[in-house]
């Protein structure tokens, strides 16, 4: 007799199936393997996947309105959900159906009627693989000091988000953040205190970046960057002001700053990606906005409104 080895970390499992009976059966079989969320149609499933970013999605093929293949395609096309492993669940056990599922991006295939030992074994395998991939991703994509995403990961995300939002004709926001007089801080307090300062600032920036799909990365040295999908030019300006206040509220003493505490300068922009706007241009102009903040007094946010650099700082 064999026993299941434990799953090392809490896992999130999303079941998308239009049959309440199938949902109940799967949830009962897997209830000890992770937190279960379910949806009974494709649109709701996509919404939940975007919100919770589950490690594993059990996806029914035969659903009305939007079938499982279309749902899987849309999951894999969205950077926020593309890393979620998908197992198709279907009553069609033909080789053609299994091949199509794998071609759509699924990692496995379970046939109905459901066999509990088989379901559990396949789910456990994918959850373990997901955890291993997540651990590797943390090593490759995270900044060791701050725990934020690194510049390499930012470069990947900004490209994919730019293309996705260009297709959807939706706005993409960007923010560059720089700690004011950080070299002076290091010179006065030493590099260990400098590291602690970076960690505190990184944590505050991350805590202020709350919406689904948003991320903060360490761009290099004392500079950070935030990717902000689905945000207007007015909203991104408010976000930048919120960051300035959040860092000031930390109250980190900085005797060589004119403000007496650690502050940041921020440059922000938002635009709908088009054929006339490139990722390089978006980054370049946001960096100009950051420079404007630093050259006009620091501890402020400057907004660049697509066609021109705004010098209205706050």
Strands, helices and their partners?
Elements: E1 12-16, H1 20-30, E2 35-39, H2 42-52, E3 56-60, H3 68-77, E4 85-90, H4 95-103, E5 108-111, H5 116-141, H6 151-168, E6 172-179, H7 182-189, H8 191-207, E7 215-220, E8 223-229, H9 233-250, E9 264-271, H10 279-295, E10 301-304
Parallel strand pairs: 1-2, 1-3, 3-4, 4-5, 9-10
Antiparallel strand pairs: 6-8, 6-9, 7-8
Helix pairs in contact: 2-3, 7-8, 8-9
Textual characterization of the structure:
It is a single chain. With 314 residues, the chain is α/β, with parallel strands linked by helices. The protein has 2 domains: 12-141, Response regulator (Rossmann fold); 151-304, Alpha-Beta Plaits, CATH 3.30.70.270. 46% of the residues lie in helices and 18% in strands. The protein has 10 helices and 10 strands. The strands form 2 sheets. A 5-stranded parallel beta sheet has the order 2-1-3-4-5, sandwiched between helices. Strands 7-8-6-9-10 form a 5-stranded mixed beta sheet, sandwiched between helices. Helix 1 (20-30) links the parallel strand 1 and strand 2. The modification 4-aspartylphosphate is found at residue 60. Residues 12-127 form the Response regulatory domain. Keywords: Phosphoprotein. Its EC number is 2.7.7.65.
């Amino acid at each position: 007799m064999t026993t299941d080895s434990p799953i090392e970390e809490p896992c999130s499992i999303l079941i998308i199936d239009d049959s309440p009976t199938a949902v109940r059966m799967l949830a009962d079989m897997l209830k000890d393997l992770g937190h279960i969320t379910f949806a009974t149609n494709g649109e709701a499933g996509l919404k939940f996947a975007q919100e919770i970013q589950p490690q594993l999605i059990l996806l029914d093929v035969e659903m009305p309105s939007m079938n499982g293949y279309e749902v899987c395609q849309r999951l894999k096309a969205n950077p926020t959900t593309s890393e979620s492993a998908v197992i198709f669940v279907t009553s069609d056990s033909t080789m053609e159906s299994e091949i199509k599922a794998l071609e759509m991006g699924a990692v496995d295939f379970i046939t109905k009627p459901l066999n509990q030992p088989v379901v559990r074994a396949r789910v456990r395998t994918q959850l373990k693989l997901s955890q291993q991939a997540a651990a590797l991703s943390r090593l490759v994509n995270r900044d060791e000091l701050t725990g934020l995403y690194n510049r390499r990961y930012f470069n990947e995300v900004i490209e994919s988000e730019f293309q996705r939002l260009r297709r959807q004709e939706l706005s993409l926001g960007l923010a560059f953040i720089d700690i004011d007089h950080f070299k002076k801080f290091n010179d006065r307090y030493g590099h260990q205190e400098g590291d602690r300062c970076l960690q505190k600032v990184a944590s505050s920036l991350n805590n202020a970046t709350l919406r689904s799909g948003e991320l903060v990365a360490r761009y290099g040295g004392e500079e950070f960057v935030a990717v902000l999908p689905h945000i207007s030019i007015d909203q991104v300006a408010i976000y930048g002001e919120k960051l300035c206040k959040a860092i000031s509220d930390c109250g980190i003493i900085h005797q060589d700053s004119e403000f007496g505490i650690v502050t940041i300068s921020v440059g922000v922009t938002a635009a709908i990606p088009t054929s006339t706007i490139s990722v390089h241009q978006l980054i370049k102009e946001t960096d100009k906005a950051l420079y404007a903040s630093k050259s006009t007094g620091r501890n402020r946010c400057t907004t660049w409104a697509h066609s021109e650099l705004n010098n209205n700082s706050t």
